[in-house]
Every structure is written in structure tokens, then in C-alpha cells.
Automatic annotation (TrEMBL):
Keywords: Membrane, Transmembrane, Transmembrane helix. It comes from the Bacteria. This is Uroporphyrinogen decarboxylase. It comes from Shewanella canadensis. The chain crosses the membrane at residues 7-24, 44-66. The keyword Transmembrane applies.
Amino acid sequence: MEATNTIEIIGYSASVMVAISLMMKDITWLRCLNFTGCTLFVIYGVYISAWPVAGMNAFVACINIYHLIKIYRTRSQPAVTA
């Protein structure tokens, strides 16, 4: 019973994180919160053996990481002056 409650909390937390991420104006915050939600959904999906849920969210998490790295690299490059 306790494990069921824990996994349900993980699932609800994932839903909340994804929903909150979609309200962000700052793309970096959106990506970070969405990545967190996707990661929680992967854990949830694996635990309940919902492989499409786990797989799709793992894919979206990778997309978020790709874009976060791209944002970080763009911001860390020095400005070029002509």
C-alpha cells in the first residue's frame, strides 16, 4: 500500500511539474521544469510498466537536455563585435 502511494505521488508530481513548466515565460525555466517532470514520468512509467509513457518522456527529456545545452553554449560564448 505504501509503495502504491509513493508511486502515485511521483505521477501526480510529474503532472504538476509539466503543467507548471508550460506556464513559464523564460524558456530556460520551461526546459528545466519540463525535464524534471519528464524524468518523474519516466520513473512512474517504468514502475507501473507503462513503457510508452516511459519511452516518450525519456525522449522529451533528451530534447530538453539538448536545448538546455544549446542555450547554455549560446550564453557562454563571448559577444562578437564588428
